[in-house]
Amino acid sequence: MEVKQIYELMNDVTQEVLGKNDLITEDLQGVVQLGTEIFNANAMDKYVKSLVNHIGKMVFVTRAYRGGVPSVLMDGWEFGSVLEKVQAELPNATENESWELEDGQSYDPNIFTKPVVTAKFYNDIVTFEVPVSFTDRQVKQSFSNASQFNSFISMIYNAVEKSMTVKIESLVMRTINNFIGETVKSDYADTTKQGNSSGIKAVNLLYLYNQIITKGGTDTEATPLLASEALTDANFLKFACLQLGLYIKRLPKISSVFNIGGKARFTPRDYLNVILHADFSTASQVYLEADTFHKELVALPRYEEVPYWQGSGTDYAFSSTGQIKITTSSGTTITVNGVIGVMFDKDALGVNIPDRRVTSNYNGKAEFTNNWFKWDARYFNDTNENFVVFFIADATE
């Protein structure tokens, strides 16, 4: 099992999240796993370095097409390190010979038809630790009583917890951001010209809208709308909500066009996660619902909100909060501007339950205790599952 130290990335991420730095190009290689079709049997443990990693959990993609409950629960496991996700391809139809009978013809019932089954293996974790030292005697002279001293120690623990929470939440967002980057790369041969077209998985809503208003739509003389104007334009917001609603109705039907792997997949509404940028969702509510008699006709679907994807930047402007700048797990460096939302199957990406622990060591000579707050977790993208990103980007030369 490969274990990657990511403390340097997490320190940079913390500065982005707190608004102290502009967005940087984050290298997510080795952080979010894309899975491998063939498992390396030489993967060894990190202790004696001679024990082969064992399969710790198997996940079978067996969801019935017409309803039912999810067949996969992403829980933790104590032994083994590998997550194996197994899936079966849709078999092809063949001729029904019952209606093609011919006199004297032999019909062989003993032909073996092997099902096509593939598996992805996830065997990496990311890890970091936060070190904190506590003294026994040296700091007591600054307090009047034990209560004050204990409050001081509690404050330090609270700071550690806040630091861990910021980093863990940020890593969850990096799991989403990596999938955004992979999806845009899949739909665009030239990822620097995202504003000049639209894909079916990476949807440039501004391009689609401008195609309507400038080519025989509402006004053949209309000037193309700019990304900087889109979130204050009621007509564009209506169009965007329309497209989101259409995708929610399309994803439950089995199809191969909404995932990078081209697999036959479907996402019922109960299994669909919708995450929208707060700037877009708030603008839609204000511009569309405030003065509409039947606001349910323009209301957004059930969703969660995020104030930014990667960080707030120093200005908290949409140009910063709607942008991601990353090197994806597959090694592609990409910038995506104006991301307003994503839709994905709950099995498309995941976070295994983190292993959080604290180890300590007492130094009797100098009378202090070192504490190491450690954290391990797995973050993965399954590019065979449905994932759609919506963004607004201006056309470029």
Question: Explain this structure to me?
Answer:
- Helix content is 25%, strand content 24%.
- The protein is an alpha/beta fold and 397 residues long.
- It has a domain of 262 residues.
- It has a five-stranded mixed beta sheet. A four-stranded mixed beta sheet has the order 1-7-16-15, covered by helices on one side.
- Helix 1 crosses helix 2 and helix 5 crosses helix 6.
- It is flat, with a radius of gyration of 26 Å.
- The chain starts with a strand and ends in a 6-residue tail after the last strand.
- About 4% of the residues have low confidence.
> What is the C-alpha radius of gyration, as a whole number of Å?
26 Å
- How far is the N terminus from the C terminus? 45 Å
The side-by-side strand order for the widest beta sheet comes to 8-18-13-9-10
Q: Main beta sheet, described?
A: 5 strands, mixed
Structural class: alpha/beta
Number of strands: 18
Shape call: flat
Q: With helices defined by DSSP (H or I, 4 residues minimum), what is the helix count?
A: 7
Strand content is 15-25%
Q: Summarize the helix and strand pattern as letters.
A: EHEEEEEEHEHHHEHEHEEEEEEEE
| pLDDT < 50 stretches | 64-73, 77-81
Helicity, as a percent range: 25-40%
- Output mean pLDDT: 78
